[in-house]
Specification:
Layout: E1 2-3, E2 8-9, E3 20-24, E4 28-32, E5 38-40, E6 43-44, E7 50-53, E8 58-61, E9 66-68, H1 69-78, E10 82-84, E11 91-95, E12 106-107, E13 116-123, E14 128-136, E15 140-142, E16 145-147, E17 150-154, E18 158-162, E19 165-170, E20 175-180, E21 185-194, E22 200-210, E23 214-219, H2 225-232, E24 240-245, E25 248-249, H3 254-257, E26 261-264, H4 276-287, H5 293-306, H6 327-339, E27 345-349, H7 357-369, E28 375-379, H8 385-388, E29 393-398, E30 402-407, H9 409-425, H10 440-447, E31 460-462, E32 468-470, H11 476-497, H12 520-540, H13 542-565
Parallel strand pairs: 11-12, 23-28, 23-29, 26-27, 27-28
Antiparallel strand pairs: 1-2, 3-4, 4-7, 5-6, 5-8, 8-9, 10-20, 11-13, 13-14, 14-17, 15-16, 15-18, 18-19, 19-20, 21-22, 21-24, 24-25, 29-30, 31-32
The structure holds adenosine-5'-triphosphate (ATP) and magnesium ion.
């Protein structure tokens, strides 16, 4: 807990600015890390003082302001908890009811509704555990499985307690983390972007994504996929329309909201002269400077295993030409650099481009494993059918940044099969050859159906670069209008099915807008890391080293010879 002159700021991890360390269990332990001008239960909080209190107690500051411990716990719980498991204790009860727990058990956030009582058995050596559901009035899930009685657990497994509330098991580090995500919805409303050159990047795009959804953005090259991702990432303000997170507009609140978004661009972000381990280590220090060195190295170990790179941790990355890593390993490292931080919304631009189908599946599998309570949007030029089915929803863009479909992969295939049937036979879909298709290529075949002359030959036209390309039977505007009509019909159907209007979801609390204090320690960690990374990288780059060292004597020799003989 940090206290500056007018406000109390909470952090999950201890930092150098921290003034008090507050541990919430059945009792509240308050430890002063520095001298604080305050009292708790009549004891002055001098550096090193430890006071045990209850949730009803208050810290009274000498300027007469007070800090309610119950209120403090509520605020701390909104950040999620981190429970360090003891080597001597292998059974933990988990509940939101403190009267059912003993000291050191896991007390869930107060926001947890109903009754939950779980038991977790831990085997730290084998890095596994068992979950036993003793009492729960809602489904408790491990991964995709609903657990009624018991379920085995392994490192990295997540136990879903409620919507947006998870326990992440890490037996090797003896940690169970409670995750509570803040961002629940991403809404894109009528977003249009015109570049300064006059080119249209996006045109009137609208869709909604909720927490837990993994969404694919597909479309031909130049259809605006990367532009859409930059708009969502807060990097390119749209000409008109809105991007909303939890019903709050992104661009007017960018300072406050951008910390929840992680954007992973198409280009590789790693340093080619460093090893995989060093790249991830530096990324962790830059993205999470507030974590202690030990916490960062723990996170690094976990991430290396998750990315399937632990055996290659000491391999130098190497250039794209002089390869020491496979294409899949390079991509996994690239996405890992950002996953080592923690955000609620992840935007990946073409994470599978140039990879074999097996490597692509591995990359999407890694991304999917973290999608359980996040919003994840991935652009893929044209996914394979297996990849396509791994997504919950898909967005299809056509030339000029037009949205021509948004829905589940199955809905999209069905929509285009129907469109194809209508065009061919002028009738609604009955049974047809393409209806059972799972190939996303089929969607592009329909979208880009070529225009043919009377003899059946394809008609070619010149594009804006002067190349001859097959003319399309249906322009992007046709597909956009068709989709808007389809969506309208869907909306009307849904409204007529509803008996009474559905109340909108209450938006999750976002942190109050406040002055962000300047953190010397974090800034210094980041600067030191960047300097160290640049230094090691320059030292390992032989060509660069030879030039740097050799250039001065060669120049001196040339100038000296010039002066001597002139
Ligand atoms: N800064 C810019 N100024 C003008 N036009 C741009 C700019 N950036 C992109 N464009 C154009 O906008 C269109 C969409 O570009 P974008 O990069 O979003 O396409 P994409 O779908 O990501 O393509 P790819 O699959 O090749 O990555 C393209 O026609 C591109 O030439
Ligand atoms: Mg792109």
């Amino acid at each position: 807990m940090n206290r500056d002159s007018d406000e109390v700021e909470l952090e999950r991890a201890r930092s150098r600015e921290a003034a008090l360390e507050v541990t919430f269990g059945l009792k509240v332990k308050v430890k002063a890390l520095k001298d604080v001008d305050a009292e708790l239960n009549g004891t002055r909080l001098r550096a090193g003082t430890l006071v045990e209190a209850t949730l009803q107690d208050r810290i009274v500051f000498h300027n007469d302001s007070e800090l309610d411990l119950l209120d403090l716990r509520r605020r701390a719980r909104a950040l999620g908890g981190r429970f360090q498991l003891k080597a001597s204790k292998s059974e933990y009860l988990v509940s939101n009811n403190p009267s059912l727990l003993e000291a050191d058990d896991i007390l869930l956030s107060p926001g947890t509704a109903g009754d939950v009582l779980l038991k977790i058995f831990c085997d730290y050596d084998k890095r596994i555990g068992t979950l036993e559901v003793l009492e729960a009035d809602r489904p408790i899930m491990v991964g995709e499985t609903n657990v009624r009685t018991t379920s085995p657990l392994k490192d990295g497994d997540t136990i879903r307690i409620d919507v947006g509330q998870f326990l992440k098991c890490n037996f090797s580090e003896r940690i169970i983390e409670e995750e509570r995500n803040i961002i629940r919805t991403l809404e894109v409303s009528e977003v249009t972007h015109h570049f300064s050159s006059g080119d249209i990047g996006l045109e009137g795009i609208s869709f909604n994504v909720v927490r837990g959804e993994l969404v694919c953005v597909m479309g031909a090259s130049g259809s605006g996929k990367s532009t859409l991702l930059k708009v969502l990432a807060g990097q390119l303000e749209p000409t008109s329309g809105q991007v909303l997170l939890n019903n709050q507009q992104l661009y007017p609140n960018l300072d406050q909201l951008k910390r929840y978004i992680s954007y992973i661009p198409q280009e590789d972000a790693f340093d080619e002269h460093l090893t995989i381990g060093e790249n991830l280590q530096f990324a962790a220090a830059i993205r999470s400077p507030h974590l202690s060195r030990r916490d960062r190295s723990r996170r690094l170990e976990g991430k290396l295993v998750e990315l399937g790179l632990s055996e290659r941790r000491d391999a130098v990355v190497g250039t794209a030409v002089k390869k020491t890593l496979s294409g899949g390993e390079r991509k996994r490292l690239n996405i890992g650099l950002d996953m080592i931080g923690s955000a609620d919304v992840y935007l990946f631009d073409e994470p599978t481009s140039g990879l074999s189908s097996k490597d692509s599946e591995h990359v999407i599998e890694i991304i999917r494993s973290m999608a359980h309570n996040k919003i994840i949007i991935v652009t893929i030029h044209q996914p394979s059918s297996k990849l396509f089915q791994m997504f919950h929803k898909a967005i299809l863009l056509d030339k000029g940044g037009r949205l021509v479909f948004f829905g589940t992969p199955t809905e999209m295939l069905r929509y285009f099969a129907e469109a194809e049937h209508q065009h061919q036979f002028g009738a609604d879909l009955g049974a047809c050859a393409a209806c059972g298709t799972t190939r996303p290529e089929f969607i592009f075949d329909v979208l880009e159906t070529p225009l043919r002359d009377l003899s059946g030959d394809i008609i070619y036209e010149e594009n804006n670069r002067g190349q001859l390309v097959p003319a399309r039977r249906y322009a992007p505007e046709f597909w956009r209008d068709k989709y808007e009509a389809f969506r309208l019909i869907q909306d009307v159907k849904q409204v007529s099915l509803r008996k009474e209007p559905v109340a909108p979801l209450p938006s999750a609390p976002l942190q109050r807008k406040k002055r962000v204090p300047f953190r010397w320690h974090d800034e210094w960690t980041q600067l030191r890391t960047l300097l160290k990374r640049a230094f090691i990288s320059k030292l390992r780059n032989r060509g660069n080293l030879v030039i740097t060292i050799g250039v001065a004597p060669v120049l001196a020799f040339l100038i000296a010879s010039l002066l001597r003989y002139s």
